[in-house]
Amino acid sequence: MAKEVLVLMSALLLAATGAWAQADSALIAKGEKTFADKKCVLCHVIKEKGGTVGPLARGPDLSTVGTQRDAQWLKVFLKDPKAVNPRAKMMAFKGTEEKLEALVAYLGSLK
């Protein structure tokens, strides 16, 4: 009986993990779309693409930002960059909380 319970619990955990991963990848895809829609790529480079606006307005390369910053930091910074870094040139994120969450998920996935 105990073995059957363990097998059932393992199956449920695996199913939940798969559903979470799909939801997470959907959120990341929405964030990637938000990144494109907000034209973040003009100033920021990801995997050698973007950053075409020029050296004076160019932001940091975000290819590995997910290894350098956590979701909370990204969210705070995106909402008010100057509150985190008074010399920041980036404008505050304008959009819904849902789009902000998606953008944070996308940026956090960049590793």
Explain what the structure shows:
- It is a single chain.
- Helix 1 (2-37) packs across helix 5 and helix 3 (71-79) packs across helix 5.
- This protein is mostly helical.
- The protein has a two-stranded antiparallel ribbon with strand order 1-2.
- Helix content is 59%, strand content 4%.
- It has one domain (2-109): Orthogonal Bundle (Cytochrome Bc1 Complex, Chain D, domain 2).
- Mean pLDDT is 85; it is low at 5-21.
What topology emerges from the helices and strands here?
Layout: H1 2-37, E1 45-46, E2 49-50, H2 65-68, H3 71-79, H4 81-84, H5 97-109
Antiparallel strand pairs: 1-2
Defining key terms:
111 residues, mainly alpha, Cytochrome Bc1 Complex, Chain D, domain 2, two-stranded antiparallel sheet, 59% helix
How do the helices and strands follow one another from N- to C-terminus?
HEEHHHH
Biggest sheet descriptor: 2 strands, antiparallel
- Overall tally of structural domains: 1
- Topology-level CATH name: Cytochrome Bc1 Complex, Chain D, domain 2
Q: Which of globular, elongated, flat, extended, rod-shaped describes the shape?
A: globular
Share of helical residues? 55-70%
Q: Give the spatial strand order of the biggest sheet.
A: 1-2
- List low-confidence stretches: 5-21
Number of helices: 5
First-residue to last-residue Cα separation: 43 Å
Mean pLDDT reading: 85
CATH superfamily: Cytochrome c-like domain
The number of distinct β-strands equals 2
Structural class, from helix and strand content?
mainly alpha
Give the second-level CATH assignment, the architecture. Orthogonal Bundle
Q: What proportion of the residues form beta strands (DSSP E)?
A: under 5%
Rg over alpha carbons = 18 Å
CATH class, named Mainly Alpha
